[in-house]
Amino acid sequence: MRHLVVDALPGEAGSRVALPEATEHRLRRVLRLAEGARVTLVDGHGLRATARVALEVLAGRRSEPRLTLVLEGPPVAVPRPRGLTLVLAQGLLKAQRMDWLVEKATELGVDTLAPVLCARSVARAQGGKRDRWLALAIEASEQCGRVWLPDVREPRSLDAILNDAPGVGCAAIVRLDEVGGAPPLSDVLRELPRSIVTCIFCVGPEGAFAPGELALLDQAGALPASLGPTVLRGETAALATLAVASMWRVSDIY
């Protein structure tokens, strides 16, 4: 079934779910869903329901029938994925690279995407970026079947992001090391105490973290970790990190 993210889900079977015109057009004209087709609906915050497509003429209108979705049953609550909560503090990248990263990080299960305004970032924050990233995360969630949308945040300084980190004992900060000599990321994750429920992965921009930013990470107790002997682009390092970390989410360690 098609997977669709909606703003809100009604609470009873038989309820209609109103769709924006753009979404209706995509379902009807692009995906060509016929009357009676079934879709999975999620609100992005843990509720999921099944609905069927109905074509209805709205009262007082003589135009062609509008596509609506009718719930087949009440929504059910789906718990968050168990294990580590994955936070990606990513140095702001150029527009196309950042867009691609948001899409793929969503597919890999990132819980929070926190863009970092770094001294060596080539890109600079502009208004409306978060709205675009959130739209890309929604599209990716529909493609991969996510029930919980990632928390996509506004770009902020590394200092501000570290200050918001959960208290000592329940969160770990991991810095992906570009120089080499750090232990493999898998080993770092393996050694985390069982009390750790959140892991903040810090990945630099195209120009890497500046010395002052590295000092901030050291002061915050960040654990250096390696992804191998080659120097990776920012978006490649981020996705490799999430691919490794997502394995720990479903392991028996947590």
User: What's the number of extended β-strand segments?
Assistant: 13
CATH architecture of the largest domain: 3-Layer(aba) Sandwich
Average of per-residue pLDDT values: 88
Q: Estimate the strand proportion.
A: 15-25%
- Alpha-carbon distance between the two ends: 31 Å
CATH homologous superfamily label of the largest domain: SPOUT methyltransferase, trefoil knot domain
Low-confidence stretches: none
Q: Which fold does the CATH topology of the largest domain refer to? A: Alpha/beta knot
The CATH class of the largest domain is identified as: Alpha Beta
Q: What's the shape?
A: elongated
Structural class of the secondary elements?
Answer: alpha/beta
Helix-strand pattern: EEHEEEEEHEHEEHEHEHEH
- Using only C-alpha atoms, the radius of gyration works out to 21 Å
Specify the helix fraction band.
25-40%
Largest sheet: 7 strands, parallel
Question: Helical region count?
Answer: 7
Number of domains: 2
Gist of the model:
Helices cover 30% and strands 24% of the residues. It has helices at residues 21-30, 95-107, 129-144, 158-163, 185-190, 211-219, 234-249, and strands at 2-5, 16-17, 38-42, 47-56, 66-71, 76-77, 85-91, 112-117, 151-152, 156-157, 171-176, 198-203, 223-225.
Structure write-up:
The chain has 254 residues and is α/β, with parallel strands linked by helices. The protein is 30% helix and 24% strand. It is built from seven helices and 13 strands. The chain has helices spanning 21-30, 95-107, 129-144, 158-163, 185-190, 211-219, 234-249, and strands at 2-5, 16-17, 38-42, 47-56, 66-71, 76-77, 85-91, 112-117, 151-152, 156-157, 171-176, 198-203, 223-225. The strands form two sheets. Strands 7, 8, 9, 10, 11, 12 and 13 form a seven-stranded parallel beta sheet that branches. Strands 1, 2, 3, 4, 5 and 6 form a six-stranded mixed beta sheet that branches. The protein starts with a strand and ends in a 5-residue tail after the last helix.
